Structures
1.
Amino acid sequence: MNMRKFTKQLFLTLTLTFLAFNFYSSAQNAEAIERAKTKYNKSIRYNDFQEAKSAIYDLIVLEPNNNSYLDSLAYMYFEFNQYASAALVGRDGLKRNPNNQILMQISAKSLDQLGAIDQSLKMYQKLYNISDDGFVLYEIIQKQYALKQYDDAMINSELLLGKNIVNGSQVYAQDASGNEIEVPFKAVILNLQGMIARGQGNEESAKKYFNSALSLAPNYALPKENLNPKD
């Protein structure tokens, strides 16, 4: 047989074999993906979150380039108070997509729960830079207050009060009996400003902020307590 003809036939045979194998593998992979998705959906339906988590891991292996599975896994870990795992999954997901706002938020909250407030602050700052979200800015102010970065916290609180989202927004807080009530977002910010002013050593300003918060939300427990601290 002519060597050139033999080589051409061999190449054609190998190509057809490779294509057939790829088609078979793709079909098998598609079936496995469908099985994993069915497993996940049924697990969620029956509140079996361990199996649901297992299904997500199967899907991550089967479709490693689908970043949405990491979002789901991080969220599931966070919901079940597995904050270290949530933060680790978030870290890996953000390596793939640094602007994933869902993973940024989960990571920031998880780091906060783990006591890594400085790392949580950095994550919230990254999130705010791309979202310009007033509630994210509030989280930043809280973390700066906790880290005793009082000047930065006060500057950001004034910036937050200038945002449109503050006017008319209601958030949940507690009354003196521990009941959940709705209060103006502005009242919560004013209370935090009072705490910041107290941290700066300005007690007179702190009381003004607390009283301003109470003028907007008379049943709001925190500014009442802050006006009359037990210690």
2.
Amino acid sequence: MRICNITLVEITEALARECPSAMNAALGIFLAIMVGGGANAGPDGKEVPRVAFLGFEFINTSLEATARVEVERIRLLDDVLRQKLTASSRFEIVDIPPDTIKEIASGPTISNCNGCQRRFAQMVGANWAAWGTVQKVSNLILNINVYMEDAESGKMKFARSVDIRGNTDESWRRGLDYLLRNYLLREP
């Protein structure tokens, strides 16, 4: 790239030759930005939490067997939550590597693991752990819960629940949308 007939390489070499301390400062700022010292700032410039979203869990307390479509709806809610948090620019969703996903799946449920969610969040470099549950009381009565916890202190940063009526894709999606829009992502 040419800037006023001088390449960036020529500028860098001149800066290093004429003013090494300025070059070191510029390099330090560049590295801090690249490593994350500003990479997770929201639109208002404030640092946003790095979130390890560990997924939704289905808790079936009804007398009916869990249907395949309900398992598929859990994946639907996983996708919706990730998309909404990312689109909000208030959170940075941290990728969870496949080996960690296998470890999570092989242990106790996230909602009942005595703090394992914080350990998993720390393993992937996140500040917060997030997870959710859908409890089915019957085909008519269900509730959706979302939790966010500080990975270091264990302090709960967000915990909300909404009741939904009806066991359909639409009711599940609307319930999660309502919870996010009116509680987690509500404008201040």
